[in-house]
Amino acid sequence: MKLNFRNNVIGLSAETPEEQAICALISAADGHVFQLHAATDKGMAFSEIGPEEDARRAPLNIVQSIAPPFAPISNLAHTPFDLDGQHYASIEGFWQGLKRIDPVERRAIAKLWGGEAKGRGGSVDQPAEFVYEDVTIASGSPEHWALMRKACDAKFTQNSEAREALLATGERWLTHKVRRDSRTIPGVVMADIWMRIRAKLRDEVAAP
Length: 208
Known about the structure:
Blueprint: E1 2-6, E2 9-13, H1 17-27, E3 32-37, E4 45-51, H2 52-55, E5 60-61, E6 81-83, E7 86-88, H3 91-97, H4 103-110, H5 114-122, E8 129-132, E9 135-138, H6 142-158, H7 160-167, E10 174-175, H8 187-206
Parallel strand pairs: 5-10
Antiparallel strand pairs: 1-2, 3-4, 6-7, 8-9
Helix pairs in contact: 3-4, 3-5, 6-7, 6-8
């Protein structure tokens, strides 16, 4: 089996009867969407999602392990942005920093992303309330959610990679299902924030 990759297209050329049989099976799924799994430089696997029209409507779960094209949407992704005069390396760094009272600790966490940001914040419990910009906010309240929306707005407005990834989800329903759901920002709330921002960005793109 010969493989080539050109212009974002993977080409297969069968050389044996067995390989021709495999290509015949694959050709029966013409127009279908496949998902790539466990790709390495030595091998990979694809699983069939279904016809393209159905796949475009399939829910997309935004988690750390999501496919690379959508990875910048994740709160853990390194997607720098500024908010209220402060710089953040990721939404996770912003979010976890709110648990800390000491401004020095907040600024240190603001520089982090990925598992490091999550780990630093996860080492302390979520306080019942916190102070942001001289305003006391109850954890898990609508005001807390609005603050997360504000931070995500800044991220997707300022970071082109994150913005393009979010718009690339099209009209697919977004979810945020993780092993242990957050008590302060449940997955359904987080996903709703992403979809509302996506709708706003799409309207801005369509505006004359």
